Amino acid sequence: MAITTTNDSLGTGRRKSSVARVRVRAGEGKITINQRPLDEYFNSVQARNAVLAPLEQTAVRNQVDVSINVKGGGFTGQADACKLGIARALKSYNSELEDNLRNSGLLTRDGRMKERKKPGLRGARRAAQFSKR
Q1: CA geometry: angle at 70 spanning 64 and 75, to 5°?
Q2: Is 82 helix (H, G, I), strand (E, B) or coil?
Q3: How far is CA 108 from CA 47, 103, 116, in A?
Q4: Backbone angles phi and psi of 115, in degrees to 5
Q5: What CATH number did the domain enclosing 31 receive?
Q6: Parent domain of 75
Q7: Could you report the per-residue pLDDT of 68-97, keeping only the tens digit for each?
Q8: What was the pLDDT predicted at 98?
Q9: CA distance 52 to 87
Q10: 128: in domain
Q11: What pLDDT shows up at residue 6?
């Protein structure tokens, strides 16, 4: 089991079925996701911007190194899970950043999940096609 030093801050982010475990420490702005660079892991600009949002909002982009372990879901859910995890880790890294993060809506979890399938239907709400004859 790894021993955490006092300069590491941890945060957990969740979105849909994705879970991201984030570690923030003082550094020069290196971001790794599942041992791969950010640009290599997320191909879309939208996903990259979502991950970088908490760092850009608090202006600590080049002052901290971020290490993320994310699993489950698709790339959009993973990007949003990373965003929440980074925001929570930054809050524990420096408590003065909390007001800025909260006012930007970065500390609020998006609770929307996939609706379950109901009995007798083809999906959550889709019924079988009606036949008059």
Answers
A1: 105
A2: helix
A3: 18, 10, 23
A4: -75, 140
A5: 3.30.230.10
A6: 9-103
A7: 999 999 999 999 999 999 999 999 999 999
A8: 92
A9: 10
A10: no
A11: 55
Give whole-number Cα distances, 55 to 80, 120, 131, in Å: 14, 47, 55
Averaged pLDDT score across all residues of the chain: 92
Question: From CA 93, how far away is CA 112, in angstroms rounded?
Answer: 28
The pLDDT tens digits for 90-125 are 999 999 999 999 999 999 999 999 999 999 999 999
Q: Does the residue 93 lie in any domain? A: yes
Could you give the CA distance from residue 91 to residue 28 in angstroms, rounded to a whole number? Answer: 18
Is residue 43, in this structure, part of any structural domain at all? yes
| Residue-level pLDDT at 133 | 86
User: How many domains are there within the chain?
Assistant: 1
**Which residues does 9 contact at the CB level (< 8 Å), separation at least 6?**
23, 24, 25, 89, 90, 92, 93
2: which DSSP letter? P
The token pair at 79 is 């990007």
Write down the pTM of the prediction.
Answer: 0.88
In 3D, which of 67, 10, 75, 80 has the Cα closest to residue 35? 67
